[in-house]
Design goal:
Immunoglobulin-like; alpha+beta; four-stranded mixed β-sheet; elongated; 3 domains; 45% helix; 641 residues
């Protein structure tokens, strides 16, 4: 993917004339032992353990219906409103196809990802053989195959948005070199694979730029610019058509979590730090047996330094510049996460860009490549420990929750202890889609239940919390279970011993988006009656991923026996224990649940009590949850659309 002339001897006059535009690559320029590279890549990432995590629950649950899988060709991914604008129909279709043939088996999903990665390793090796020589091409493919930072793109089922897209991208670039070598039909096939990439992830929008660099590097010395322009034009036109399609089905040209990411010094520093982590993953190792000694970590930066020094010493400036250009183009779609480089999940965004780095390192010869393989050894062991340990724990947890669900008639279960990540925080676990874990295709339809995580929705050290889950259940007449982090133990918790109170919704069951402005302007009032009066109420809304808790005053008049809670105050209250920014209001926090959760009728817990030394002590609570509903237009309303 990073493009440069083939093994030059002179810095300024590259010996590329032998690669004439109408010539067929000789056997010397073909990748040696591609099957061996495929086997090594497959063996390195074979899923010895496998299970679902985070977004997998959403993707697999959604895709088990063919109509929904096909609907993704004409709309936002998973039909999600407001939060993201992803057009990735081939990813959804791949999950449906796997289920149609094998059922919802996490092993199959992970094997497919592994085979896709191995295919990319061979494609990159073949591209490298054409551009930097066969042995260096093999080395580039091997570096790519064993890079530890690829874990999230291979061992996370939904990570196929990276691994599958990269297969299409590298196939496109390899076909472009075949076209440069005189195979005219190759360009038509390249346009087909480019369309596959664009239907898998938005990052493929950079393909015209990568094609330009590829064609420039592969062409004869006297035809580079002309060949690059001719090669790029069809892909630029394809991208225009893709933008038109996106606008037709999504109502916007760009997509992702953000459309105008902030650019500044911190962002660029984050890019540098993320790049350094991809090149030297030794800091990923945990303290303990797998951790390298402290003095060894700086030496992990030696391979790229040696590669750069060798290229400069041999005056091969084109290698360095074209490699840098390819990397800059490939990493651009991840700009919104450059500053989040310390988050291990963000490293998978360097999956495709690292192909440029692998070719760049390999082009400098066997020494830096061999050194980098040595650097990869310990981190590769560590990421396998992290993910395989996580899969074992999350599988056990799912089994315990499934057993618990089959023993109760309740349609809603609260589960305390569902981990968001593994113990080191390097891989996501029950992060999103918790309400799907007891839904088809993960359990039979007759055993399906709604599962809600009993934990704060926000991951903030000063978030307001509830004193339930450790030793007592919620006050509801609904079961609450506690599960250990490894899933080996699970218990049914006794209900909290609070006096009962009753709630009555004095407004509509659904807080419709169209009514929010009326509530804000005061032209409409929506309140909830509480049978017990108190100076303060602790009010909690339960979503699939966690709860939002606030303290609210009583808004009933002095002549009433019952209390009242104002719904507008609930939405505008902060769920953290400090004077936070607007995004910590309940209203903003509900944007994600109203987009992702299956049910938008969130259970409401109201506790009456008293404040003692600034701490709330509950005395009464409702036994039956009152459901406060919202609509699917809520996320877009909060986003100001």
């Amino acid at each position: 993917m990073t493009m440069w002339p083939s093994s030059p001897v002179d810095a300024n006059e590259r010996d590329l004339d032998r690669l004439a535009a109408d010539a067929t690559p000789s056997p010397r320029e073909r990748l040696p032992l591609p099957w061996l590279l495929f086997v090594l890549a497959t063996a390195a990432w074979w899923p010895l353990q496998s299970f679902w995590q985070s977004d997998d629950w959403i993707a697999v649950h959604y895709a088990h219906d063919l109509d929904r899988a096909l609907a993704d060709f004409a709309g936002n991914q998973y039909h999600l409103p407001g939060v993201v604008w992803f057009y990735r129909p081939l990813i959804t279709f791949s999950f449906w196809l796997e289920q149609a043939v094998f059922g919802a088996d996490p092993l199959v999903a992970h094997v497919v990802n592994t085979l896709a990665h191995a295919t990319s390793a061979v494609l990159l090796g073949a591209l490298g053989a054409r551009l930097v020589g066969p042995l260096r091409g093999f080395l580039a493919g091997l570096l790519w195959a064993l890079a530890p930072t690829h874990a999230g793109s291979i061992l996370w089922a939904v990570g196929r948005v990276d691994s599958h897209t990269t297969v299409w991208v590298l196939a496109t670039l390899l076909l472009v070199t075949r076209w440069v070598d005189g195979r005219r039909r190759a360009l038509a096939f390249a346009l087909v694979t480019a369309a596959g990439a664009l239907c898998s992830k938005e990052s493929a929008m950079v393909l015209p730029g990568l094609v330009a660099v590829t064609a420039f590097a592969a062409a004869r010395t006297d035809r580079r610019l002309q060949t690059a322009i001719r090669a790029t034009l069809p892909f630029a036109l394809l991208l225009v058509g893709y933008f038109a399609l996106r606008y037709a089905v999504l109502g916007r040209f760009l997509g992702g979590y953000v459309e105008s990411p902030p650019l500044g010094l911190d962002t660029l520093i984050g890019l540098g730090a993320g790049t350094a982590r991809a090149l030297n993953p030794l800091p990923l190792c945990a303290p303990g047996d797998a951790a390298p000694p402290g003095w060894l970590v700086p030496l992990g930066y030696l391979p790229p330094v040696v590669a750069l020094a060798w290229l400069l010493f041999r005056r091969r400036h084109a290698h360095a510049l074209l490699g840098l250009a390819a990397y800059a183009i490939a990493v651009l779609p991840a700009v919104h996460s450059w500053g989040d480089w310390q988050n291990p999940e963000s490293l998978r965004l360097y999956y495709l860009p690292f192909a440029a780095m692998a070719l760049w390192i390999a082009s400098a010869g066997p020494l830096p490549g061999t050194l980098m393989l040595a650097v990869f050894a310990l981190p590769l062991v560590q990421v396998h420990r992290d993910y395989f340990g996580l899969f074992d724990d999350t599988r056990q947890i799912h089994e315990r929750v499934q057993e618990f669900g089959s023993e109760t008639d309740a349609e809603t279960l609260f589960v305390h202890g569902l981990p968001r990540t593994n113990r080191r925080g390097t891989a996501v676990a029950y992060h999103l889609g918790v309400d799907r874990i007891l839904r088809p295709p993960f359990v039979p339809a007759a055993e399906q239940r709604e599962v809600l995580a009993l934990r704060p929705l926000a991951q903030d050290p000063l978030v307001r919390t509830l004193p339930y889950g450790e030793s007592s259940a919620l006050p509801f007449d609904l079961p609450t279970m506690q599960v250990s982090a490894d899933g080996r133990t699970a218990v049914l918790l006794p209900r909290a011993g609070l006096q009962p109170l009753q709630l009555e919704n004095l407004g509509p069951e659904v807080v419709a988006t169209r009514d929010l402005l009326a509530l804000h302007e005061g032209s409409r009032v929506h309140r909830i009656r509480v049978s017990v009066r108190a100076q303060h109420y602790r009010v909690s809304l339960f979503t699939a991923g966690g709860y939002l808790t606030v303290l609210l005053p009583d808004r009933a008049g002095p002549d009433l026996d019952s209390g009242q809670i104002d719904v507008l105050e609930l939405l505008t209250a902060r769920h953290v224990e400090y004077d936070a920014a607007d995004e910590h209001h309940v209203a903003f926090a509900l944007a994600t649940p109203t987009a992702l959760d299956l049910s938008l009728r969130f259970p409401l817990l109201v506790e009456a009590g008293r404040m003692v030394n600034g701490q709330f002590t509950a005395t009464h609570a409702n036994r039956t949850p009152l459901r406060l509903g919202f609509d699917r237009g809520y996320p877009r309303f909060i986003a100001g659309e």
